[in-house]
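My main concern about presentation is that the manuscript never shows what a single data entry looks like. An entry of this sort, consisting of the sequence and the corresponding backbone structure tokens, reads as follows:
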Amino acid sequence: MTAPARAATDAKRHHDPAVRGFASDNYAGAHPEILAALALANEGHQTAYGGDAYTAHLQQLMRSHFGPYAETFPVFNGTGANVVALQALTDRWGAVICADTAHIHVDECGAPERVGGLKLLTVPTEDGKLTPELIDREAFGWDDEHRAMPQVVSLAQNTELGTLYTPDEIRAVCDHAHERGMKVHLDGARIANAAAALDVPMRAFTYAAGVDVLSFGGTKNGMLFGEAVVVLNPDAVRAMKHLRKLSMQLASKMRFVSVQLEALLAKDLWLRNARHANTMAQRLAAGVRAVPGVEILYAVEANAVFARLPHDVSERLQKRFRFYFWDETAGDVRWMCSFDTTPDDVDSFVDALREEMAASR
């Protein structure tokens, strides 16, 4: 028996595949079409560090989705994509305006500050969405040497609260930012879910709306690993290749990131996966609304449901299904649906929620 055959034989499953949950779309595995693409790219040798045929083909494919000037830089993960993109848009003295719920502020362990050397200027919002008026709370002091200079507005689509910007809303933000000499970055960790929910092409609220640089997310939509920085306005950035390497985001075997992006985007896998996740979230929201005592906190516009319920109910429910507290003090939780969430998963969860709520009365 060959060594690879022995390794395959000796490998053991270390988890129960029957365990399901609503903690994160990152909990889901990779889509079978993605795994098949990885196997396809695994044959033979290809040039390292992005000189491979898959990365070359990805450039034109991305332009079909994001406009004729798009330049794509595959990276390992979403934090890396955001940090590289924001560094490329700013000077050493630059600052980034973002919502106070933004992923770059709340969930990236200070990476924009520690790795990117950036100042984040956060703005409170009701629904996770920035507006021109909210941006102006921090868009000032460009000539004040005592203040970090606002140079970038960073949006998230979807937002961290599961809400969506319309293309017109993003266009208004971009126009406002550009008029003030700032650039616009979009954190698109769940960009496919947004496009599916809005029923528009991804370019409608990125390139066509005036976004300068996009962090494109694939892992939450069925990829095994990898994201990409997509430069939509080449005049807005500098030294992207150097920044990617400096930020430890240059993959030596880049073909394995690029081929996944190709499999996701070449046809409609990205859209099928996102539509399914969104549909499951709507099913979940409808079921939850029928459970007395549970409050849905924000509009369910993509694949996330935020709710408030008694703390003890959540703790008992977490023993049956995985999910996270969003604000444990208030009793707020977040439930995420993914490309592989099934109607039975949703219905079983709603039944369990109803049982636990009844037990708490």
In short: The chain has 14 helices and eleven strands.
